Amino acid sequence: MRPIKKILIANRGEIALRVMRTAREMGIVTVAVFSEADRHALHVRYADEAVCIGPAASSESYLRGDKIIEVCQRLGVDAIHPGYGFLSENAPFARMVQEAGLIFIGPSPESIEVMGSKLAAKQAAAQYNIPMVPGTPDAITDRAEAKQIASQIGYPILIKASAGGGGKGMRVVESEAEFDEQMDRAVSEAVSSFGDGSVFIEKYVTSPKHIEIQVLGDQHGNIIHLFERECSIQRRHQKVIEEAPSPVLSPEKREAMGRCAVDVARSCGYYGAGTVEFIVDEKLDFYFLEMNTRLQVEHPVTEQITGVDLVKQMIYIAEGQELAIRQDDLAIKGHAVEVRVYAEDPANGFLPDVGTLQTYVRPQGNGVRVDDGFEQGMEIPIYYDPMIAKLITYGHDRTEAIEKMVRAIDEYQITGVQTTLPFCRFVLNHEAFRTGEFDTHFVSKYFTPEVLEPATDPAAAELAALLTARLLTDKGPAPASSSEPVATPAVKSNWKVNRQNWR
Ligand code: ADP
Q1: 137 touches ligand 1 (CB under 6 Å)
Q2: % the chain with pLDDT above 90
Q3: Which of 156, 261, 269, 490 lies at 20 to 30 Å from 415 by C-alpha?
Q4: Which ligand 1 atom sits closest to the C-alpha of 231?
Q5: How far is the CA of 168 from the centre of ligand 1 (A)?
Q6: Does the pLDDT of residue 251 top 70, yes or no?
Q7: Pick the CATH number of 6-105 from 3.40.50.300, 3.30.365.10, 3.40.50.20, 1.20.1250.20
Q8: pLDDT tens column, 312-340
Q9: What is the 121 CA–ligand 1 centroid distance (Å)?
């Protein structure tokens, strides 16, 4: 057991804040790192101490593991939480952290390595008889042989990069005539995006749902699952709306998937929080896709329906504590929905639309949770992921959670950038979504920019105007500006921030 008293969060934005909030509840001191572009960011203000680690480009700041470890040593930090993205699934970094005598709040470097390769992950999981999508077990080296396998599997097939992530490095091949061309593209995309040209083939499941299972494992071999999240509403193979539980799984199917997920975690000696992703076909047969060895963006929906703070559990596990929760202690209570509020223009192919948040007023009220990293007047930097916030609602059943979400979306006032909110509102009101009869092709099947209608709640608009006027007259502490460690006051009230400094 190594108690953690001081944590550095090697991340930015909403996830840095989300981790810090739990740390603060646990009495743990927090250290933020930030790039020059994030000098005035909320995570910098919220942390007990904050250090600038370099210029805006993440390769010179948030990805500089060496600088981050040096800050830990200088400030007497015990442990690093990597959040998601950046260094969170970087096995050499996790190893460097351990070698520096620090605790990495996450799995072992070995687990990250195995699950970081989709092929190695499948090989590890194969020991446990986990259902897999039919495909090639190894990276393709012989094209003629690969073509033969593809025709045995039957078109359409998918070519995937073994090192792929974030929906990149995937190519659908409809027929043998397209095989060579798509293969060339997949390999070159895999090399340019991931520095590894290994690709493999999978049967393309034509009407798939993406359903994933949250797992938690400790360093003593105990592994539990915390049920599923339904994540089929995607654009560019990336999630925009998630919910828990899934509207289509029976208790038996849930248990079978949960057991498989625990086995996948066991196959790589997993500890920490992780997610085992499955693809589910029309008959509700499920197949293992991959495992993500970190906290997921969509983890709050699981927290809402189980009452478990996943970050707190991650910290306990990293300290070496045994899991205090047993599988039988867990039950699903209520229903949660999350929408990702991206600075993107749904009317223009979901292209990023960064700029200044001229109006920014969060929704509030019963059953509404907003995890964000911005305030009114702040700029969404072009250097990073354009996610502004995660909006989560919780109700006693699915209908209530959805109704709360529509109400919350209508209350959310954002101007200055286009966002995914109107798109999410469209999805939530769509019959296919309401009935649960949707798959990962929802966007291509039902969405065109013409279906977007602006939120027209005059009461909400009036409230927003009032709040905005109040925001602009309040004053508060100035943001951190030194590149040295600084003590920053806790953000006690969102209203007490001097927005003029951010213009
Ligand atoms: P990444 O690591 O890039 O996120 P995944 O393997 O997790 O890649 O797949 C991302 C998404 O791509 C899935 O949620 C699903 O929508 C789609 N997908 C992946 N594999 C298949 C498949 N075999 N058939 C159909 N769709 C797939």
Answers
A1: no
A2: 84
A3: 490
A4: 14
A5: 9
A6: yes
A7: 3.40.50.20
A8: 999 999 999 999 999 999 999 999 999 99
A9: 14
